[in-house]
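Students often ask what a 'structure token' actually looks like in practice. Rather than answer in the abstract, let us consider Preprotein translocase subunit YajC, a protein of 107 residues. Its sequence is given first.
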Amino acid sequence: MKGAANLVFLIVLLAVFWFLMVLPQRRQQRQRQQLQQQLRPGVRVLTYSGFYGDVERVEGGHVYVRIAPGVVADMDVQAIARIVEAPAPPSGDEAGADGRPVSDRPN
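Now compare that with the structural description of the same chain:
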């Protein structure tokens, strides 16, 4: 009888381990794969290092992300944390006559 109780306890322990460890990892893996499938030029992303940028192109396991004007970073696909919504265009009060925000214009 004691052996059967130990066996039931072991099975319950393995089931708890499965639900707490394996299933969440599978879910995260599926989410990463979906994110990688959505990467295409023009998509705004956040990297795990904290850079926001726009995808220039995707080649194999590499993503080329424009993080500043004239600066394109070659990153591994795994470095992309998430896709972010593009920022809203500035309102009329914040934009100059050329349509650019006042803070972006040279002095």
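One point worth highlighting: The first helix runs from residue 2 to 38. Ask yourself how you might have guessed this from the sequence alone, and why that guess would often be unreliable.
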